[in-house]
């Protein structure tokens, strides 16, 4: 599976009559709401505390996972450990078959996207239905979510109205309340008919074996409690030590993700009740590769709030579809190469301006620009993101900057090149595209050394 920055998708999104404007407007509102909400609390102190908690949790992940498993089993649940996405999806299907499930209602879960769970369930004759409104919309559209928090943020209400008209055979409307009611009516019976309900997990509490799910629509609670079987799909990095630690993250997550003081629902699942069955599938799927990297492991602190996407100038222009896999934006460009292999996704870390806005906005103080540079270096070292031309250019530059004579020649070449830059559009289509949006910098008529000699 080769994952790269999809240039065709970039072109399509940039030339869409509405997508860039819709996305940029949504991102601006999200950032404004976040800043207003974070001003009401001791934001910097909470960020520092969250960073410390996640650093401890990742450092002691083996101990915390075992303690969570012990407490979860003591409450009547069952824990399944899986190393790969294929294994996790297979275990999920086994549970569905064991309980005779013909349909699954799904709360929002990015990990399920990693498993390509909808496609696998459909292939097995089991009907999956997304119950988060944004996820439901992109499922109907046959697309992948384009944002961690808001899966259909790239679509306008007119787009959704046309989609519902086409797929659900209803009269066209672009009224958000009417569209929400249409989806609500369609989904209501699905909760009652489903044999299995699935949720992701925002946090797992090692101290108590509690699964914590944070949401705004109520679909996570219904998906978990209406069917007779609940399956939690959880990345191994989601475990934190105690319930006291959770208080810190709840104040940060809602503000960073949606600009709220607190999410509408915070579910604490303490095991199965009333004869129901509850499973927790722990998913590795490349996370131990991140854990083994002393630099990139910091990305495991991520709480999936999407704040870094909202301020990223690249994401705000092209959206999530261009990133080619589950996680877009700065955090996706950091974790994807390690999770799927740098040889397959080494290009993604270069989809960044390194402006640093993501690090400023991150509620757990992940140094994303540093991690992006680290992944770039890995990609180049392993030959996953360079070309013979680029390598030759860097080697020539290195030689030129290693001696006074080479430097002088490079300055002369820059002067000549600057004078000839007006010819760039005629050299090649690539040069034409580059020069359309850029102007070559002017080279000074006199170098500092020449100036120094004269004086």
Explained architecture:
The radius of gyration is 25 Å and the shape is globular. It has three domains: 41-285, 3-Layer(aba) Sandwich (Rossmann fold); 293-381, no CATH class; 400-454, no CATH class. The longest helix has 20 residues, at 19-38. It has 455 residues and is an alpha/beta fold. The protein has helices at residues 7-14, 19-38, 43-59, 61-74, 85-98, 110-114, 117-123, 133-141, 157-168, 176-193, 219-225, 243-258, 287-292, 307-311, 313-318, 329-340, 342-345, 357-361, 368-381, 388-400, 404-419, 424-427, 429-436, 448-454; strands spanning 78-82, 103-106, 127-130, 196-199, 203-205, 210-215, 229-235, 239-240, 265-269, 277-283. It has 24 helices and ten strands.
């Amino acid at each position: 599976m080769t994952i790269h920055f999809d240039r065709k998708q970039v072109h399509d999104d940039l030339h869409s009559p509405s997508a860039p404007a819709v996305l940029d407007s949504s991102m601006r509102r999200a950032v404004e709401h976040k800043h207003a909400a974070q001003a009401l609390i001791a934001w910097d102190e909470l960020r520092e505390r969250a960073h410390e908690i996640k650093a401890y949790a990742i450092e002691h992940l083996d101990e915390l996972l075992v303690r969570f498993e012990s407490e979860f089993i003591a409450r009547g649940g069952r824990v399944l450990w899986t190393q790969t996405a294929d294994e996790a999806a297979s275990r999920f299907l086994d549970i569905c078959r064991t309980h005779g499930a013909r349909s699954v209602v799904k709360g929002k879960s990015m990990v399920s996207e990693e498993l390509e769970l909808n496609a696998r369930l459909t292939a097995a004759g089991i009907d999956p239905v997304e119950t988060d409104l944004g996820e439901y919309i992109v499922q109907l559209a046959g697309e992948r979510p384009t944002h961690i928090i808001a899966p259909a943020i790239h679509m306008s209400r007119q787009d959704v109205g046309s989609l519902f008209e086409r797929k659900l055979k209803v009269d066209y409307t672009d009224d958000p309340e009417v569209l929400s009611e249409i989806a609500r009516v369609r989904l209501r019976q699905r909760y009652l008919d489903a044999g299995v309900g699935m949720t992701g997990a925002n946090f797992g509490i090692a101290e108590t074996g509690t699964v914590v799910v944070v949401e705004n629509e109520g679909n996570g609670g219904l998906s978990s409690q209406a069917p007779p079987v609940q399956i939690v799909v959880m990345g191994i990095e989601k475990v934190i030590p105690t319930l006291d630690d959770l208080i810190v993250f709840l104040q940060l997550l809602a503000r960073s993700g949606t600009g709220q003081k607190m999410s509408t629902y915070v579910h604490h699942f303490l095991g199965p009740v009333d004869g129901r069955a509850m499973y927790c599938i722990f998913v590795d799927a490349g996370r131990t590769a991140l854990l083994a990297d002393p630099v990139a492991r910091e990305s495991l602190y991520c709480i999936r709030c999407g704040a870094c996407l909202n301020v990223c100038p690249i994401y705000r222009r092209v959206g999530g579809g261009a990133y080619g896999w589950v996680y877009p934006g700065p955090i996706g460009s950091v974790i994807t190469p390690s999770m799927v292999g740098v040889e397959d996704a080494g290009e993604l870390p270069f989809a960044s301006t390194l402006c640093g806005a993501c690090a400023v906005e991150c509620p757990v103080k992940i140094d994303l620009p540093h991690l992006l540079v680290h992944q770039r270096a890995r990609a180049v070292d392993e030959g996953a993101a360079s070309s013979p031309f680029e390598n030759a250019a860097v080697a020539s530059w290195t030689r030129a900057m290693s001696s006074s004579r080479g430097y002088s020649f490079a300055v002369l070449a820059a002067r000549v090149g600057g004078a000839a830059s007006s010819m760039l559009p005629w050299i090649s289509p690539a040069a034409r595209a580059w020069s359309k949006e850029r102007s070559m910098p002017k080279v000074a008529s006199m170098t500092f050394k020449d100036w120094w000699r004269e004086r």
